[in-house]
Specification:
The chain is α/β, with parallel strands linked by helices. The chain contains 20 helices and 22 strands. The two termini are 75 Å apart.
Length: 594
């Protein structure tokens, strides 16, 4: 396994080597792994590699060297470290240092500024901001030079890893962004002297007469100044204020390197002088002209007024946009309301006959009594449908169509078997939907129904007793071909404990008879209570009442439970009732308890 190692131990009594693993290349995907935890999982015993007689075989390496090597499993039976060094591939030669001041502008590297700098390795790259420059080498005296013979490359990124705060470059970069020259102090001196040869001037003569001129020049050079040129900018900024004749200037301009720099300097001075003169002339004109002062004051006032008008326009525009958006929202609401009205109009038109029929029944059932009467009004009717159903899907389709016709959404996984069993086998059922109950009874057929509206003033059993339920019980016991359903609309508008208690006691076999009826509770007789929401409208019921009833409610389409009743062998036929009575269903009326 190939890894980057740091030699950190050489015992004085032997030549064995101990290495820390800084990173390794995964054998699975070639990824370079630098995570210390993953390294310790692979290289046991704290991520170290051991190599016997390393310094005997590799005498040129010291204990602070970084190397790239191949490692192999250590098969020695007494080995502490899992891996040992197999082959040294190469040495990691370069590190990275952060340094400022070695760049002169963007066009020159001052190598002398790097002399004496402290580096972990002799070869290094210098980093300034997010750029890397180099490579550089440092001799034993601390003097720095360019490895690539005077040309210094700039790179946007390097391939490196870290050993604590030391950044190591383990692969040489391939493509430089650009290259610039680098000079030492003596190199700048030699170049500058060649430039000013032949210029007769006290400054140039002094420079040419002494090889130590650059020491004085260096004292006045500010390396923090942002420079815009290259070598001449460094060399000439000390003498830019010296008086010079036109003939001397012409001689200096003959050198191509000087010409662009001096011309740039002359143009810069022209612009500075022009700007200063323009400001001075403007100031004098304003000071000497009262009329101009007044005009300037008016101008300032107008600008302030214009700014205020713009602010007001901006505010009014924002208000108008807000009002327009409100108007658009209002129009959208009106359109929605109109669409709903049209939809309701179409619905009434399409279902006119059925609505009129329901209205007649509701008028008979729900017609309020203007005078309190001891007699309770009720409606008896019979529901007939195709029976028996020989195939389970037939009854499922009929129930689904019956519910849909009453505008009850049918969930895709409706519990048809459970709902049929519940409505067949329970003596008492509570539901929040009359349409749901009637939809099932109409599909099931063979049902005789008595519909009663419970009144809020039913305080005793006397009011309910006038419904002649003993006669209905007797009829049900003598007619086993039909199921009898007593539907109590608004079941909890009054307290069932008050008006229904004797009837419930008979349901639960607590008393042997009910009024004139002396037999048992008929298996084909069922009580359905249509409950009102509590506590908004209806009265909460006690557990003693709820113990006689089960719950049968609409299931919203989003509530999916078990699968539909498609694969059962049950069918609505002569033996269907007994089979439905055998289905185990738990009572679930806890939500109505007080």
């Amino acid at each position: 396994m190939k890894a980057i190692l740091k030699a950190w131990e050489k015992r004085p009594d032997n030549d064995h080597g101990k290495f820390s693993v800084l990173a390794y290349w995964s054998q699975e995907n070639g990824e370079l792994v630098t995570d210390p935890y993953r390294i310790k999982e692979v290289f046991l015993n704290d991520g170290n590699v051991f190599e016997p007689s390393f310094y005997l075989n590799y005498s040129s390496y010291s204990s602070n060297k970084y190397i790239i090597a191949e490692t192999t499993v250590n098969l020695h039976e007494k080995a502490i470290d899992k891996y040992k060094l197999s082959t040294v591939v190469r040495e990691v030669e370069y590190t990275v240092i952060k340094h400022e001041g070695f760049l002169i502008g963007d066009d020159l590297v001052d190598l002398s500024s790097l002399d004496g700098i402290s580096t972990p390795l002799k070869n290094f790259y210098a980093r300034y901001h997010n750029k890397y420059w180099g490579p550089f080498k440092k001799d034993n005296n601390g003097n720095v030079s360019s490895i690539s013979a005077g040309s210094i490359a700039m790179y946007n990124e390097l391939t490196s890893i870290f050993d604590d705060e030391i950044e190591l470059v383990y692969e040489k970069p391939t493509q430089a962004e650009r290259n610039i020259p680098g000079y030492t102090t003596s190199g700048i001196n030699k170049w500058f002297r060649s430039v000013i040869q032949g210029i007769e001037h006290p400054v140039t003569l002094a420079v040419l007469g002494s090889r130590k001129w650059y020491k004085e020049l260096k004292e006045v050079i500010s390396y923090n100044e942002q420079l815009t040129s290259s070598q001449l900018q460094l060399a000439l900024r000390h003498i830019k204020g010296v008086e010079i004749t036109y003939a001397e200037l012409k001689a200096l301009l003959k050198h191509s390197d000087n010409q662009s720099i001096l011309n740039s300097r002359i143009d810069s001075l022209k612009n500075e002088i022009k700007a200063e003169l323009e400001d001075d002339i403007k100031a004098r004109i304003i000071e000497e002209s009262e009329e101009l002062k007044d005009l300037l004051l008016k101008k300032n006032k107008l600008e302030i007024e214009l700014s205020d008008i713009k602010s007001k326009i901006k505010i009014e525009k924002s208000q108008l946009q807000s009002s327009l958006q409100d108007l658009k929202n209002s129009i959208a609401e009106k359109k929605n309301s109109l669409a709903k009205i049209k939809e309701e109009e179409n619905y009434i038109s399409e279902n006119k006959d059925r609505l009129l029929s329901d209205l007649r029944i509701s008028h008979q059932v729900l017609q309020p009594s203007l005078q309190r009467s001891n007699e309770v009004h009720f409606v008896d009717y019979e529901l007939v449908s195709k029976t028996p159903y020989d195939v389970p899907k037939d009854i499922i389709d009929v129930i689904s169509n019956s519910l849909t016709s009453r505008y009850i959404p049918v969930p895709p996984d409706w519990q048809y078997k459970d709902s049929l069993a519940r409505i067949i086998q329970r003596q008492g059922i509570l539901s929040n939907s009359l349409d749901l109950v009637l939809g099932h009874l109409r599909a099931f057929g063979r049902c005789k129904v008595r519909h009663i509206n419970v009144q809020a003033n039913w305080l005793t059993h006397k009011e309910f007793g006038s419904c002649h339920m003993d006669k209905m019980l007797l009829e049900a016991s003598n007619d086993s071909d039909h199921h009898y359903y007593l539907i109590l609309q608004d079941f909890n508008i009054a307290s069932p404990e008050c008006y229904l208690r004797p009837f419930i006691d008979f349901m639960q076999c607590m008393v042997p008879s009910y009024k004139s009826y002396q037999g048992k509770w008929p298996e084909n007789f069922h009580v359905v209570g249509i409950v009102l929401p509590t506590p908004e409208v209806g009265i909460e019921m006690t557990s003693s009442v709820l113990s006689a009833f089960d719950s049968f409610e609409e299931i919203p389409p989003t509530e999916v439970k078990a699968g539909p009743w498609q694969d059962s062998n049950l069918c609505i036929s002569d033996n269907m009732i007994d089979m439905l009575k055998g289905i185990q269903i738990d009572y679930n009326t806890a939500k109505y308890a007080s």
